[in-house]
Amino acid sequence: MKYFVATILTKGKKEEIGLYADNKQEAKSYAKLKFSGILIKVAEAQEPFDVQLKRFKTTFLSNIKKRKIKPDALIAAIRQLAVMTNAGISIHDSLSEIANATTDEALKFVFSKVAEDINAGHSISAAMKNFRYELGNLTIAMVELGEKTGNLDEALYSLANMLEEIRANIIKFKKAMAYPRNVMIAMAVAFTILISYVVPKFKSIFEQLHAELPLPTLILLKLEYIFNNFGPYVLAGLALAFIIFKYLINNYEHIRYAFHRFLLKTYLIKNIIKFATLSRFTLVFSELIRAGIPIAEALDTATSMVDNLPLKKKLQSVINTVEKGGTLNKGLEETALFENMIIQMVRAGEDSGTLDTMIKKVAEYYKMRFDAIIDGLSEAIEPIMLLIIASMVILLALGIFLPMWNLGNAVQGAG
User: Is the pTM for the entire model greater than 0.85?
Assistant: First the structure.
């Protein structure tokens, strides 16, 4: 966001106040809502160094502290909001009531702030965009759908159902990962204990031999030295690196883009991300089409809830194709993300005027593919897990026993 200085006339005195906005028009609108007095002018300016430093500290700390709303709490809140909206209660009062009743501190804070912004004249979707991290892109996309169609309660009911489906997939994913995770943790603990307590016992023996040690043994001795002398520093360094990496990912788009592109090339993870994204994209898109939203606008809204930046860029190219007069199936085909069968289904839907039905079937297909990946996750991870375990066992075995075998051979040769 850019830095602007608003000149305000208050009680006969001019006052200059700094603020952030995407453009000058947005800065003017924000200044009129936020500051009392007469707005004289708004001009883009160089952000002062002390303000830059303060913003860095605030952003850094907020990125460490901020956390998403618990899924169960968010789903319950969305359902409550849908019921209250359907009953004719104002959005502001509904949000305030839910914020006061909830025990989830993150939800209480977000809904209270959103209610305040609505009271200041912002739309609910615009207010929620300030909390994209906490609420998620899907929530904002579905709320925008409700605003555009005038059926906010229906959109919120659909959103709650989608969030429940996503929640069920996350639970299924965690269950599938439980066994491999526990095995790897057990192996890591065992390896650490062996490195810390068993290898030092052999170290003194190896030193007495004064023999040339094989590579596996040298690796073990180096790991033992690092663990026992720099263990706490290594852990602190890893923790600091994680915090810095998280900050960079959250605040620098080019770094986030590179990381997302790397994930799309990673074994197994690439399929999980791809099919989860396409499932949600087509699901939201089908809801928008069914509600009568124009295709280009529906694509724009559905694409806005995509988290992975390379996939988002490809899907945004579909909007350009459609806006230039091209067909939807052609735009989807150019992304190289969709199978030929899907392209044919979309083409048939466009030709027959049943695009909403076809897109819904496409969404069901991608949901089925995603569920199949999650169901087979344990089997897919097993080869990797076995390879890691085998590598650790072989390193320990060769590192400890090779020098002994060499010593035994030397003694036999001398005899």
Answer: no
